[in-house]
Amino acid sequence: MRILPFLFLFLVLTGCKKEAPSDIKEEPTEKNDVVRFRESYRPQYHFTPPEKWMNDPNGLLFYNDTYHLFYQYYPEDIVWGPMHWGHATSTDLVSWKHQPIALYPDELGYIFSGSAVMDLENTSGLGTKENPPMVAIFTHHDPKGEKEGRNDFQYQSIAYSLDEGTTWTKYDGNPVIGNPTSIRDFRDPKVMWHEASQKWILTLVAGDHAKFYSSPDLKSWTYLSDFGKDKGAHGGVWECPDLFPLTVAGSDETKWALLISMNPGAPNGGSGTQYFIGDFDGTSFTTTQKDIKWLDYGADNYAGVTYNGLPDNDRTFIGWMSNWNYAQKTPTENWRSAMTLSRKLTLHKNDTYYLKSYPVPAIEEYTYSSHTYDSITNNYSLTSENFNEMRIDFEIEGALKDFELKFSNVANDQLFLGYHKEDHSFYVDRRRSGKTNFEPKFAEKVHIAPAMTNGENKTSFSLFLDTSSLEFFVDQGATVMTEQLFPTQPYTVMTFTSKEHKMTQASVSKMKRIWE
Ligand code: FRU
């Protein structure tokens, strides 16, 4: 095996480090925060909460040049508990600023997942036209009702903010949608403004199907229709829906996408997000889609939804980078779990309609110190101090045949990914990638993704490795696999093997850290 020396201009951080005199006690400062954000496994260019437990992204909203990210948050522990909405803001969807907690549990229950809109016309009357309200629509989950064995312990409520999401008031007429017929899983409202009917449209999930409602004012809701009892995958409970229009790339045809997260029952185990492409006429969603489509075949992209407040074709998605199979057991100490990179969703058509998802263009601004290679052939290895904060792009020319990439370190942790021609699929094998024994389901099998590419001309690949994750994009996101990883130390060697192919147009780049 030949070794290509791979030298990066690493920032020599230690060069400017000053020792604190030993008799001075360190106070919590911003500098300590930076130290805290270097804990082992803390992602360096993905969103994570300041501390404690996080799950689903909520209330994704762009307003006044600011991207708001709310999220399911339990500020007391690193496992799931009474849910709050945490809050963060960004101007570019990559770097984030933590904000005070937005919504706290109350007498109606915990604050489960939901969405947010800017009520610019003040249809709700909760603000004024001059100072329109930001309105959050979420599920109240009543733990007492659940304990008592009732089935109607989830219902939908709203809260509003007149200062762009900093402080919130719960609406005193809550809930705005009561639980109609004691449906145990009745949650995760996603609201959008529907231009054609001049109404707010709300999509929520009820166990094995989605329900649609409309409203003129975000307060009184009329039931419209159901979708999905007999459509799509039903291996688990439907959660976190999202309904939005998209134009088919290269045409002026508009279709509607319905995202449905489901747990368990995803193709590689546990939690995953399926989607339907069809039509929405203001009352019902219909589709002729026969097959089951998944947004991401990796094990770790769940409960993802898209931004309100952006143009329809600037469809921007964030998912929770974990899986209920092991989310509460991953080997981190002060906080748990990260969000995926923000991704742009686009709609395409060949013999069926399908979505691509690829990191937002702003990610290019965080990519630096790129080293390029015209070609990397069978058994080449590149070495680096740390492949776990890097991005790797390359192409493979001609009809796609078997290839494999291995990331490894001296501790003999090994992560594999590649393509199997025989079953026309990509794979990620994290079974020996590092710490895996915190939960058997984490590393029980190789994860497989059917290839969307016809693999006949040229296939492009982008890998984003952050401290404890891999996002693997084929052909700008036609196939995607998002996976958590816990190597016992950073991967330092990347080895390419293929009897048939070489890698072309390869570049290996460092990624800027967002917490500095
Ligand atoms: C999805 C989910 C949602 C629910 C939330 C509770 O991960 O189960 O359905 O609203 O998490 O935290």
**What is the CA-based Rg, rounded?**
23 Å
Q: What percentage of amino acids are in beta strands? A: over 45%
Q: How many domains in all? A: 2
Under CATH, the topology of the largest domain is which?
Tachylectin-2, Chain A
Total number of helical segments? 2
Tell me the helix content: under 10%
Largest sheet: 7 strands, mixed
What CATH architecture label of the largest domain applies?
Answer: 5 Propeller
Main-sheet strand order equals 1-25-34-27-28-29-30
- Please state the structural category: mainly beta
Question: How is this structure best described in words?
Answer:
- By secondary structure, the chain is an all-beta fold.
- The chain is built from two helices and 35 strands.
- It has helices at residues 30-36, 143-147, and strands spanning 3-4, 52-63, 66-74, 84-90, 97-103, 110-118, 134-141, 154-161, 169-170, 187-194, 199-205, 210-215, 222-227, 237-247, 254-263, 272-280, 285-286, 293-294, 302-306, 315-320, 335-336, 343-349, 353-359, 367-376, 380-383, 390-397, 403-408, 414-420, 425-432, 447-450, 458-466, 469-474, 479-484, 493-497, 503-511.
- The strands form seven sheets. Strands 1-25-34-27-28-29-30 form a seven-stranded mixed sheet, with no helix packed on it. The chain has a six-stranded antiparallel sheet with strand order 24-35-26-31-32-33, with no helix packed on it.
- A hairpin with an 8-residue loop joins β15 and β16 (272-280).
- Beta-D-fructofuranose is lined by residues 55-56, 72, 83, 112-113, 139, 187-188, 239-240, 303.
